[in-house]
Amino acid sequence: MRRSHLTIITLCSFIVLVFACQKDTPRPEERVLSLPENVYRYDSLNGQVSFDPFEGFQVNNHKATLGRVLFYETQLSINNRISCGTCHKQAYGFADNVQKSLGFMDIPTDRNSPAILNAGLQEAFFHDLREPILDNMVLQPIAHEVEMGLEDPDYMAAKIAKIPYYQELFSNAFGDSFISRERISEALVHFIRAMISVNSKFDIGKETNFVNFTEEELVGKELYFHGLPCSSCHGGNNLNGGSSAAENIGLDRWYSDRGTMDIDPVSLDSMNGWFKVPSLRNIAVTGPYMHDGRFRTLEEVVEFYNSGIQHHPQLSFMLRKNTNGGFFFLGEDPQDTYMNELTNIQPLRMHMSETEKRALVAFMKTFTDENFLRDERFSDPFQ
Length: 383
Prior knowledge:
The chain is mainly alpha-helical. It is 36% helix and 1% strand. The protein folds into 2 domains: 174 residues, Cytochrome Bc1 Complex, Chain D, domain 2 (Orthogonal Bundle); 167 residues, Cytochrome Bc1 Complex, Chain D, domain 2 (Orthogonal Bundle). The chain contains 15 helices and 2 strands. The longest helix has 23 residues. The relative contact order is 0.14.
């Protein structure tokens, strides 16, 4: 009798588990694809700029359309629960609004999800800059054991090949319906390369001598570019310093997450706490901030730079007290400079007033591109 009861309980538990899994793993037919009759123009800009955000890359509209569908395709996770768009939400500048996103099994990822935009203006990707090639980068989250879990590249292509609407999409993009890992990557690259954000209040201001700015925003602009070292790292067309570089900004005295796995070019020590300098475009909507999402608001970020930079032997020269945004030599040998600085590193204290802090935040909010956050071309095509 006791064994019979145990069998019944076990069977009931199994049934509950099966139904729970079915609830969490939607079938392809439960999500209806809705695309416009005429393909969107991904190869054109919303807004006029004085530089080329495509960096000479020719976006193919049909490949970008396919990439859009794949970006939001939950079948690209091992249990059909999440897509790239799950952790990179358009309303938040294609970042996530949580400290660390949850993977396909609801396990938190190691780092905060970075925003996606203007990929052509970046030279390497991820917080640790470990991948310089966008074609490789786009597949790594899909194959990651925590994020989407689809580690077998052949299975990746096989899953997509079973979904009827992809036959026409691949034919339009590539001339035939053959589906492969390489073609999935290429389509995603075209979509991501098309995700251009260049139509913020700041961009418009640059073209009109900032007549569209409030007095407070103008004060913040002056602080950003001249009074403080902000633009030393976050300048250039993409507000990321004009390249993809890593810096140690003194978040901690020592980091459990080392960041960039490389060697300090001056001290020759292993890098500790060096992370990618991100673009500040759309920064007002991409929080929480930093590689670990420790700061919830822009105000918290500003206060950290104002008063909270930690002593660290590899602290960015931009954030040391006596350099204030510039690298200088105390002798002819860079090693001499490093050793002199190492013995007397003092983190920069900006001593901003409350008015200045508010002005700086107000200025950074002008980096928000409202069109980009609502652009139908980049939205979820599934209903």
